[in-house]
Specification:
about 400 residues
Length: about 400
């Protein structure tokens, strides 16, 4: 069996390795001059390679694509990924957030391990070899590199999405898939920093709220949340970043326009509204405590000062009117965070949207439209939260595609 894999990222190198272990003749094509460029950049060059949970925990995080991923995740769950890299000499560690990193904090170790596994299994890796198109030809597939045409029995496409185009992920394969009859769900940036905020918020640039709940709601209609995430929130000179904001960004880019959604933040999730009102109404406390001093017990000083400035007075609690106390409670529990845009695919960690899942066999990752065509990784309509989930999906779908393509 001859297999060509297009794209030497996380899914592609895993697919090539898996196919080669089943004695297939495998050629891995990569348009960059080195493999795993996105791996090297990920996690601040640390590479958060999976999450400390089980296959079900990973699948649950993917929302609409949960059921599709169950089979491949079951075949190669998080612990198997950890074992895979540990056996290559990449010791791992679990951080307090559940993220799994190399002990060395060096993404290059992860890339090198994958590359070495593939080469040792017999994969021929051709870097600096872009692909301009693929097409079926009878029982074969033809892969056009612009300089030559490679005939192969099976082709696995793992070119990634559009996020971080500087890494070479420029969405090349979406056009190929469309030409081959596949539907491609609207692609948009996800896990992306958000543009917006009032000027006083932008003046807080660099400030982190370690624990917050960021929620996205529709402007009109019922107020059921579109997305919610608890985590750290980073104020920036352009708007908002950090896990809490970036994890809900996919729900924001899914809207037809930014005018249709609103984002709010609970800045003190450890306190209920009733508890806040009780503190604000405590006569013994309110007689001597200034608002800024009280807020500084929960929030960074600069944020506390900013909220007080918007309130219009840094009075003692006893001097605040009921209306001001209600406003203060609302600011703490439902702070409006205006969003007017995103930093786009250039700063997005993942692409939402992609090849429609109903057209792909979830067990084999083979196209239901074309025999011999396999699709894995970010090119599919799968996107998960921050925390190693997307690499896990890439490894699992890549492995499943490689095993099936070599059968």
């Amino acid at each position: 069996m001859h297999v060509v894999v297009i794209g030497a990222g996380a899914a592609g190198m895993m697919a090539a390795y898996a196919a080669a272990t089943r004695r297939a003749t495998v050629v891995l094509l990569e348009k960059n001059n080195k493999t795993g460029v996105k791996i090297l950049m990920s996690g601040g060059t640390r590479c958060n390679l999976t999450h400390h949970t089980d296959a079900r925990g990973i699948a649950d995080a993917f929302g609409h694509s949960k059921r599709f991923l169950q089979s491949s995740l079951g075949g190669f769950p998080p612990q198997a990924v950890v074992d895979f890299f540990e056996s290559a000499g990449v010791a791992t560690k679990i951080e307090s957030t559940g993220k799994v990193f190399p002990v060395s904090n060096r993404a290059v170790q992860v890339r090198d391990a994958l590359h070495r596994y593939a080469v040792d299994a017999g994969v021929e890796i051709r870097t600096g070899c872009g692909v301009t198109g693929i097409r079926p030809d009878g029982q074969k597939w033809l892969v056009d590199t612009g300089q030559s045409v490679i005939a192969t029995d099976r082709v696995i496409v793992t070119t990634g999405g559009k996020s971080w185009p500087g890494c070479g992920t420029t969405g090349d394969a979406y056009a190929w898939m469309t030409e081959l009859g596949h539907a491609v769900e609207r692609t948009r940036p996800a896990l992306v920093p958000l543009i917006g905020g009032e000027q006083w918020m932008k003046d807080l640039s660099g400030l982190v709220v370690d624990d917050s709940i960021v929620t996205v709601l529709p402007v009109a209609g019922r107020q059921k949340s579109l997305a919610r995430r608890r985590g750290s929130l980073l104020f920036t000179h352009f708007g908002f970043s950090g896990p809490a904001a970036m994890d809900v960004s996919g729900a924001i880019t899914a809207a037809a326009s930014f005018d249709q959604i609103r984002m709010i933040a609970d800045l003190v999730p450890q306190c209920s509204e009733e508890e806040l009102q009780a503190v604000f109404g405590n006569r013994q406390e309110s007689g001597k405590t200034k608002v800024s001093s009280l807020l500084a017990m929960w929030l960074p000083n600069r944020l506390a000062s900013g909220i007080v400035t918007q309130l219009g007075q840094d009075a003692r609690l006893a001097e605040l009117s009921r209306k001001s106390k209600n406003r203060l409670t609302q600011d703490l529990k439902r702070m409006p965070l205006p969003v007017s845009g995103t930093r786009g695919f250039e700063k997005a960690e993942v692409t939402a949207g992609g090849v429609r899942l109903s057209q792909i066999n979830p067990r084999t990752l083979e196209s239901r439209i074309h025999k011999g065509l396999f699709i894995a990784g970010e090119l599919l309509d799968v996107d998960g939260p921050i925390g190693g989930y997307n690499f896990q999906a890439a490894f699992s779908t890549g492995r499943a595609a490689g095993l099936a393509a070599s059968a």
